[in-house]
Amino acid sequence: MRKLFTATVVAALTGLSGVAQAAEGGEPLPEVNWSWSGIFGTFDKASLQRGFQVYSDVCSGCHALKQLSYRNLSGIGFSEDQIKQIAAAASITDGPNDDGEMFERPGLPSDKFKHPFANDQAARAANNGALPPDLSLIVKARAGGADYIHGILTGYGEAPADMKMAEGMNYNKYFPGHQIAMPQPLQDGAVTYADGTEATLDQEARDIVTFLAWAAEPETEHRKETGVATILFLVILAAMLFATKKKIWSALH
Question: Is 0.70 topped by the overall pTM?
């Protein structure tokens, strides 16, 4: 399952340019109503934690999150003890020790997420020559963003009767050209959610995209709060200046 996810994202999310190209042949990307959209949008913490579970169970065997540390998981609602437990489950290469040798130790909250491969060559060797992309900024790096990734993950199906598929290829209505090498990576029941949520394909896709959107910009909510506060301050300041101007100039009129 992890390799299927890897190969699909490698092929699909490294994408060709443009949202229009994402559905060559007339299939526009469906627009998803993401909770974080808009000036007042916020991330759904439950969805973020489910998305982290999808990443951990399905994606982490091949894809890195180089820009995130385990302690950043506090931003999706995990407690300090939970973060320590999550980090400790990872075996981190450290060193050298006093003998000049590298060694393995349990992860710490301050550590970056463990990379699944020792180097890029090892990653390519394990994935038929394809280098699994780092997912830290994948949502911001792809035209169409969250909608594009969600579309690719849910766009598999049977090819039209009049379409000739190349050998070993799979039909995806949102992928450029509609032919993708790897089979569908997510499916109903691909994970068992800790909170009991039904793990449908669409739910899994929405949750992993939500998590990756947060990973690409963890400060989104703080930035929006700061922006709204700044706008309110400027509106109040403008009103006060206008009132002051009227008071000062009223005697001259």
Answer: yes
